[in-house]
Design a protein that fits this description.
The structure holds two protein chains of two kinds. By secondary structure, chain A is mainly alpha-helical. Chain A has one domain (2-89, 105-221): Fumarate reductase/succinate dehydrogenase, transmembrane subunit (3 helical TM bundles of succinate and fumarate reductases). Chain A is built from nine helices and no strands. Chain A has helices at 2-7, 11-36, 46-57, 59-88, 105-108, 110-135, 148-155, 159-186, 195-221. In chain A, α2 (11-36) crosses α4 (59-88), α2 (11-36) crosses α9 (195-221) and α8 runs antiparallel to α9. The longest helix of chain A is centred in the N-terminal third of the chain and has 30 residues, at 59-88. Chain A is globular and about 60 Å long. By secondary structure, chain B is α+β, with helices and mostly antiparallel strands. Chain B has two domains: 6-107, Beta-grasp domain (Ubiquitin-like (UB roll), Roll); 122-251, Fumarate Reductase Iron-sulfur Protein, Chain B, domain 2 (Orthogonal Bundle). Chain B has a five-stranded mixed β-sheet with strand order 2-1-5-3-4. Chain B has a two-stranded antiparallel sheet with strand order 6-7. The longest helix of chain B has 16 residues, at 236-251. Chain B is elongated. The chains are: A mainly alpha, B alpha+beta. Chains A and B meet through α1, α2, α4 and α8 of A and α6, α7 and α8 of B.
Chain lengths: 224, 256
C-alpha cells in the first residue's frame, strides 16, 4: 500500500495527476462548449436557459460539479507546486538559452498560461457560476427558468469583458495545444500508430473549442 | 582543406570552485582553422592562457570521437552547440562564421554542481544507475545467435536506448532540468530484453526514486531533450518508463 501512496508523490506520479485532471477538464470543456453553443441558435435565450436549468438541477451534474471543482483545484495546486519545484531544479540560470531551437514556447510556458487562465477563471466564475449557484439570478425568462442569458447579455455589453474573454481563450488554446497530446505521453500512450492521430486531434480541439468559446461573447456583444 | 582562418570572440563561464559565484569572461581567439573541433579551439585558447600565465579553462573531454559522453558545453544556448546529433567534440568550427561571438556555459542544474569553469559533477547519473540500472545475474559468455529469440524490432529498440552516452545534454536543455530521458533510456535498454525482466519492476521504482532524490526537475513533455540528444534518444522511452512505473506501483506486488 505504501508503494501506491508514494507513487503519487514521485516525479512520474505528479505528472500522472496533472495528466488525469487535465483530461478530466478537457471532457468538461466539451460539455460546457456544447451547451453554451445554444446561444448561437436562439436569440431569445430560452434554449440556453433550458440547458442552464438542466445543469443546475440534474443531480448527476451537481455531483460531478463537486468532482470538477476538486479536479480543477488539484490541477491548479499541483501545477503551481511543479512549476516552483522545476524552477528550483536550476538555481543558476543560463546567460543565454535558445529554447526556440528545440521546443515550442507554449510548451515551456504552461505555468504562465495556467496563471492567466486562473485569473480568467476567478473573473468568469464570479460573473456566472457564483451568480447562478449562490447569489441568485434576478429575472426569469418566458419559460419560467432563471434568465442566465440576461446575465450573459449584461456582462458582454461591456467591451472590456469581451476583450478579456477572447484573450483568455487564446491562452486556453495554447495551453491545450501542449496539454492535450502531452497527457497521452504522460499516460504512457506513445505509439507509432496512434500518436500522430492524438496529436492531430489535439491541434483540432485546441483550435475549435477556444474559438467557439471566444465567439460567444463577440456574438452577444454584436447582437447577432 | 578549408581555407581562411577565423577570428572569434568567446564569452566563457569562469568559476573557481563549487562555492565561487562565477562570471562570464570575454576572450578573443585568432587564426582558428574551420576544420578544428570546438574542443581543439579551446585547446588553442588554453595554450594561449597558459603562455600568458593565466589559469586555463577547465572543461570535460575524453575520447573526442563522440562516444564517451564526457564533453558537456552549452554553446550559444544549446547543449553541444548548433548541430543536431553531435557532441561538442564532433562539432567543427566551420559551423560558425568568422567574427562570431560564441557564448559557452556549463550544464546548469541543481543536480549537476559546477566543479570548475565548464566542468560539472555528473555523479548523480552514476547513483541513478547504481540504484538499479543493471542485471544481477552473471550472463556468462555471449550465447549462440538466436539461442534467445528476440525479434529484430525489439533488439533495435533496445540498442537505440543503449546508445545513450550519459552526457547530460537532456538535463542541460530541459527547462525543468529533468533527467527523464536519460533514466528512461537506461530503464528501456533492459526492459526490452529478456535478461532485464526478472528485476524490471523493482528497477524502475528504484531508479525513479533515486532520480527524484538527486534533485532533478519534473518532466513536462516539452520535447527539448529529444531534440538536443546527440544520440537521438526518443521520447518513446519516457512513455515506456511511465508505463513500467505504473505497472510496478499499481499492478505488481514488488516493492522498490
Amino acid at each position: 500500500m505504501g508503494s501506491i501512496t508514494n507513487a503519487f508523490s514521485s516525479s512520474i506520479g505528479k505528472k500522472l495527476i496533472m495528466g488525469i485532471t487535465g483530461l478530466f477538464l478537457i471532457s468538461f470543456l466539451v460539455v460546457h462548449c456544447f451547451l453554451n453553443s445554444f446561444v448561437f441558435f436562439d436569440k431569445t435565450g430560452v434554449l440556453f436557459n433550458e440547458g442552464a436549468h438542466f445543469m443546475a438541477t440534474n443531480w448527476i451534474i451537481r455531483a460531478m460539479e463537486v468532482v470538477l471543482m476538486a479536479g480543477l483545484l488539484l490541477h491548479i495546486v499541483q501545477g503551481a507546486r511543479l512549476t516552483f519545484q522545476n524552477q528550483a531544479a536550476r538555481p543558476v540560470k543560463y546567460a543565454y538559452n535558445d529554447g526556440n531551437a528545440n521546443s515550442k514556447w507554449y510548451s515551456r510556458s504552461m505555468g504562465l498560461l495556467g496563471t492567466l487562465l486562473l485569473i480568467f477563471l476567478i473573473v468568469h466564475l464570479s460573473q456566472f457560476w457564483v451568480v447562478s449557484r449562490f447569489t441568485g439570478i434576478p429575472t426569469i425568462d418566458a419559460n419560467g427558468h432563471e434568465d442566465l442569458y440576461a446575465v450573459m447579455k449584461e456582462t458582454f455589453s461591456n467591451v472590456w469583458f469581451v476583450v478579456l474573454y477572447v484573450l483568455s481563450m487564446i491562452s486556453l488554446g495554447y495551453h491545450l495545444l501542449h496539454g492535450f497530446a502531452s497527457t497521452f505521453q504522460t499516460l504512457g500512450w506513445n505509439h507509432k500508430k496512434y500518436t500522430p492521430l492524438i496529436k492531430a486531434i489535439g491541434v483540432g480541439f485546441s483550435i475549435i473549442v477556444p474559438l467557439l468559446f471566444a465567439a460567444m461573447p463577440v456574438w452577444i456583444y454584436l447582437g447577432l | 582543406m578549408s581555407t581562411g582562418n577565423m577570428n572569434l570572440t568567446l564569452k566563457v563561464w569562469r568559476q573557481k570552485n563549487t562555492q565561487d559565484k562565477g562570471k562570464m569572461v570575454d576572450y578573443k581567439v585568432a587564426d582558428i582553422s574551420p576544420d578544428m573541433s570546438f574542443l581543439e579551439m579551446f585547446d588553442v585558447l588554453n595554450e594561449d592562457l597558459i603562455t600568458k600565465g593565466d589559469d586555463p579553462i577547465v572543461f570535460d573531454h575524453d575520447c573526442r570521437e563522440g562516444i564517451c559522453g564526457m564533453c558537456s558545453m552549452f554553446i550559444n544556448g544549446r547543449p553541444h552547440g548548433p548541430k543536431d546529433a553531435v557532441t561538442t567534440c564532433q562539432l567543427h568550427m566551420r559551423s560558425f562564421k568568422d567574427g562570431d561571438t560564441i557564448v559557452v556555459e556549463p550544464w546548469r542544474a541543481k543536480a549537476f554542481p559546477v566543479i570548475k569553469d565548464l566542468t560539472v559533477d555528473r555523479s548523480a547519473f552514476d547513483r541513478v544507475i547504481a540504484a538499479g540500472g543493471f542485471i544481477s545475474v552473471n550472463t556468462g559468455n555471449a550465447q549462440d545467435a538466436n539461442n534467445l529469440p528476440i525479434p529484430k524490432s525489439q533488439a533495435d529498440a533496445a540498442f537505440e536506448a543503449a546508445a545513450c552516452i550519459g552526457c547530460g545534454a537532456c538535463v542541460a536543455t530541459c527547462k525543468n532540468a529533468s533527467a527523464m530521458l536519460f533514466v528512461s533510456a537506461k530503464i528501456s535498454q533492459l526492459a526490452l530484453l529478456p535478461q532485464g525482466q526478472p528485476e524490471r519492476y523493482k528497477r524502475v521504482q528504484n531508479m525513479v526514486a533515486q532520480m527524484d532524490a538527486e534533485g532533478f526537475g519534473n518532466c513536462t513533455n516539452t520535447g527539448a531533450c529529444e531534440a538536443e540528444c546527440p544520440k537521438g534518444i526518443s521520447l518513446e522511452n519516457i512513455a515506456r518508463m511511465n508505463r513500467d512505473y505504473y505497472s510496478a506501483k499499481f499492478i505488481s506486488e514488488e516493492e522498490g
